[in-house]
Amino acid sequence: MRDARAEATPTPYAVEGVDLRKTFPLRRSMWGRAIEQVVAVDGVSLAVEPGRTLGIVGESASGKSTVARMLAKLIPVDAGKVVWEGADVTELKGRALRPLRGRIQMIFQDPYGSLDGAYSVGYAVAEPLKVHRRASGSDARDRVAQLLERVNLDPRLAARRPGELSGGQRQRVSIARALALEPTALIADEPTSALDVSTRAEILNLLRELQQTMDLAIVLISHDFATIRHLAHRVAVMHRGRIVEEGTASQVVNDPQDPYTRRLLDSVPVPNVEEQRRRRERLHSSADTARPSSG
Ligand SMILES: Nc1ncnc2c1ncn2[C@@H]1O[C@H](COP(=O)(O)OP(=O)(O)O)[C@@H](O)[C@H]1O
Ligand SMILES: [Mg+2]
């Protein structure tokens, strides 16, 4: 019965990954065969609806960025499915993918990576509009000004180079650029990890504001629970290429089920009296049981 309903109505998800897998070769034999490899992502399924944020949290090398890059179709999957707005895009590439490219956009930790220092801010924001033939000339300039205003930047910054801006301003520019093609989903991979604490909060607030006005789906990736918690409706905890726990943000933060999730939570300051009480209780109750090994 559930299946019949699923067929009758389009999927509610902006972006979805089904049983995603990815292995990287570390070393190859002289014949080009991988003789050592790392299983970066080992069967991950997740989905996010328009207007909602899914947080992915996990320590370094747990596979978060690899999941993000597969969802954004920056790298191919070894196995599994990538679905954008109900359309299976797993096998699409090049030309066939092009009309859909703007639907799902990625933001990275270091905006320098996505902004070419040789070009102006205005050029960077206008580029996707030009590449996808959505606007040119004075239309493009107007659109760039609107996009900069949307991320709370002075449109006059269009004439500057990324190197002249602060880290927070640069991240706003890369968000403006990501919004140029009016995506349904943003995949933000550690978007605030390189920023100082107050700028971090500003960028997260901006993302929330944009989500509300544009009904954006957001996949927010961080090694840091405090960041995830700020924005996420649901949280998936990754460990060694798998999701070890998934639930609403309050379930996962207030009542973690997996020992790895507890360990992650214990390593970040969570400014919440209730949580601190629980944490003390957990400490007491785990005093006579073995602590999960750290790895
Ligand atoms: N292009 C690559 N080539 C080889 N190994 C990679 C590559 N990308 C990621 N890895 C490995 O895959 C694992 C997961 O990496 P990643 O997805 O970047 O984790 P995270 O974003 O959680 O830090 C790590 O062991 C990493 O070294
Ligand atoms: Mg990463």
From TrEMBL:
InterPro entries attached to this UniProt entry: AAA+_ATPase, ABC_transp_ATP-bind, ABC_transporter-like_ATP-bd, ABC_transporter-like_CS, Oligopep_ABC_C, P-loop_NTPase
ABC transporter domain segment(s): 15-265
Protein name: ATP-binding cassette domain-containing protein
Lineage: Bacteria, Bacillati, Actinomycetota, Actinomycetes, Pseudonocardiales
Pfam families: ABC_tran (PF00005), oligo_HPY (PF08352)
GO function terms (MF aspect): ATP binding
Compositionally biased residues, Polar residues: 286-295
Family: Belongs to the ABC transporter superfamily.
SUPFAM superfamilies given in the database record: P-loop containing nucleoside triphosphate hydrolases (SSF52540)
Keywords: ATP-binding, Nucleotide-binding, Transport
Stretches the record annotates as Disordered: 253-295
The organism's place on the tree of life at top rank: Bacteria
